[in-house]
Amino acid sequence: MGVKIKKGDQVLVIAGKDRGRKGKVIQALPKGGRVVVEGLNIRKKHVRPKKEGEKGQVVEVPVPLPVSDVKLICPKCGKPTRVGYKIEGNKKYRICKKCNREI
Ligand SMILES: [Zn+2]
Prior knowledge:
Number of helices: 0
CATH architecture of the domain at 10-75: Roll
Order of helices and strands: EEEEEEEEEE
Strand order of the largest sheet: 6-3-2-1-7-8
CATH topology of the domain at 10-75: SH3 type barrels
Shape: elongated
CATH class of the domain at 10-75: Mainly Beta
Largest sheet: 6 strands, antiparallel
Strand content: over 45%
Bound molecules: zinc ion
Structural class: mainly beta
Distance between the termini: 18 Å
C-alpha cells in the first residue's frame, strides 16, 4: 500500500461510526495503513494521576482509522475520490481519479 493519504488531506469517512463525516488528516501512519483524522473517531481515555493527591483525567483522543475507511476529498474538484498515480521521469504525482488533476 502506497502513501495515498497524506497529512493535511481532507477526507470523507466511508465506514464505521463516523461514516459520512469529513475531517483533516493530522497524522498518516503508512506502516499500519492508518490515518488520524482531526475530531473524528474520538475515544475517551482515562489518564491516571501522576502524583499522589492529583485527580485522574479523561481526555479525548482521536484513534487512527484504517485508510480503507476514508476517501480523499480532491482539493481541485471537491469530490471524494480514489487516488491514482502518474509518473513523469523520476517524479511521481498523485492524481484525482475524478478530474485527473494533480493533487
Ligand atoms: Zn478532482
